[in-house]
Structure prediction request, 855 residues.
Amino acid sequence: MAAIRLIVNGRTHALDVDPGTPLLWVLRETLGLTGTKYGCGAGLCGGCTVLIGGEPTRSCQIAAVQAEDQSITTIEGLSTGHDHPLQQAWIAEQVPQCGYCQSGQIMTAAALLAKNPAPTDADIDRALSANLCRCGTYPRIRRAIHLAAKGGAR
Amino acid sequence: MSATRRDFLKSGALAGAGLVIAFHAPETARATDLAAKDTLAPNAYLRVTPDGTVTVMIARSELGQGTSTALAMLVAEELEADWRKVRIEQAIPAPVYGDMTTGGSASIRSLWKPMRRAGAQARELLVSAAAAQWKVDRAACHAANGEVVHTASGRRLGYGALTAAAAKLPVPADPALKDRRQHRVIGTTPARFDAPAKVDGSAVFGTDVRVPGMLYASVAQCPVFGGRAAGFDPAAALQAPGVVRVERVGNGVAVLAKSTWAAFRGREALRVTWDEGPLATLDSAGIRAKFAELAKQPGQTTRKEGRGAAALAGAARTLEAVYEVPYLAHTPMEPMNCTAHARPATCEVWVPTQSGSGAREAAAKAAGVEPRAVTVHLTLIGGGFGARHRQDHVVQAVLLSKAAGAPVQVVWTREDDVQHDVYRPATYNLLRAGLDASGAPIAWTHRIVAPGIATQMGFLKQGEPDWSSFDGAANLPYAIPNLEVELITHDPGIPLGWWRSVASSQNAYVTECFLDEVAAAAGRDPYELRRELLKDKPRHRAVLELAAQKASWGTALPAGQGRGIAVHESFGSFVAQAAEVEIAPGGAVRVKRVVCAVDCGTVVHPDLVRSQMEGGIIYGLSAALKSEITIEQGRVTQSNFGDYPMLTIGECPTIEVHLAPSGDPVGGIGEPGLPPAAPAVANAVFAATGKPVRRLPIAAG
Prediction:
């Protein structure tokens, strides 16, 4: 076990964890932030996506110690009360079906919009092509990102 | 999985089948909180509290299909509720709810009457209570928008003010239900109840359940189907950080630990000796060869019209083709999991399952207690698609909780999910058609060789042909005078399960693509030939024509592109799709556009119908283009999303959904969007290349 310091959603946590533990499991089981999902454990599905220093990162593929002292944002920290434009657009377009992949989709989309406030369909496809959705919400994800980019769901 | 699914599949007339509203059953109180003072709870499906809140009990599983929202609409319709005051609550499986299975696209169909009757019962009681208070005839009052109104004077009382008095009145057994022209909730698009929690991380899925003192478990299962652990050495696993114990469970071995990651690590270190059993030499090539050999002999006839296969001899021209589909896994995004806390006399289970009642029975058996001593909490579900009727992970969790004396959460890895699923069967299909001298199809024969799901589950009577293999083939809608569909059931031993749209998932592809071969042989436009052969099938024909019209059927496409169409009936609904594809110089297929027309009878929630059509199409496109489970040495070759890929957003076509409700009884929506997708795309490839697609996935050639 090792003492590490994680800054998650603006709060600093001093934790004692097995140093090789992926960030995903520390978020979910040590910090109780279960919005970040386990889908494949291999960086293939995007369900575990969080922002580290603003960059979308597969939390199943990075040891918690590697994220020490960096600013980590999970779906729980994206906004207070659903007021991120993407969350509002997601509800306006009724995007989620089962919902399991949606945290990862939204976090990846948030990183996209932060860099590119008016993405094209091609930009969206490029940014989100490694975020899998088995329910098939892709057409609505595209619409919701465009809506959020236009500020339309507010 | 119970035989109920079969009833759902086979029967259109199933409203209310097997479901009764029972009053004051001993286990009702647990679900509906009858004890709460002044609460109106006339049946197991709803309660109205003095603050005016209407809580609808959802006796089905929410897998993302939106059923919890749609079921609440049925209650609200008859209750004349104020939708802003309607809430939902997941029901706990109990006898009062009957079979709590969510499958066969049957939730709305099976609860169409019970939920509306439940709402009407409460409405009648509230109206009676108001009339008594006002000392007027109850016929002089009506309910509207969460209030009872004295029609003449305009006096009104909110439902909340009436619950105490209404709760004391006798419940009418069979109150009148509204005519559909009076519907004001059914047919509208209220926002889904489950959406807000699914965009902020607060939705609780099975893997998100936390119980004080719980352990996490990962189970090593024999890589070969039917194999078992002959022995194991736990020493290395027990040395891994966080590992608490190692237990044999069923045919496998579990590592229990203080975290999921520790359980996964411990399992990697675990050494198990496997008895691989009799399937260790099974492979896909051998299965395929056996199917082909069996297809040389006649099978059991499941449908015959006219002279059947004998009519081929009199045809001016015949054609023949073999169509094949592979085994498929479901791969819902949330892997299989279950949390259980077995105590000496009771058992509590938290599980994302499509069968709450099945989970209750399985947990009771594993715990060694009566079903009434088991409480099953249905969590939100990270995708079902038929994968979550099985209960083996429930049994694992209960047995491990008993052994450990603590709550245990079993989580399968993605590799476990891909390699230990219950699979959509691979099938082999021999088709023949005969044309007369004018090119008109006069004979059609279809010989199916397939492992049967219902056969494997023991659902069939002796000698009964397996409907889970021939549904969607034997009910071919086309007016061809001589027709014969035969079935040869052969099971290599791969575990089978319901997979979104079941037999229609392969039979729509097989039949609709062969029809395009018939059209090509006859020199006919495939859409025009369908229209002609569907002259007595108005619902098929209406959606076919709508899809063709919206897709601008018949207009020219650039070189290298093609357009295809398909129509199929399943689960009480009729769906046609037209697809446009582009073939890259190397042969890669890109689907550009899918136009869908759906007649699901009466529409409860148009936007949920659209979302299920979109989802069914995309799930179907993954199977058409990419997905295949292959077997080598008795084990699955694929292991994760890298080698069992699904459609990505970049590959997702433009999808247009057009609703063409006929006003007929409600049809299913969870599955019927899938079957036409593969044949529409394959027919578009045929149109573009001139080469029929006789094997899926298309990528496999």
Q: What stands out?
A: Strands of chain A lie at 2-8, 11-17, 49-52, 55-58, 71-73. The longest helix of chain A spans residues 102-115.
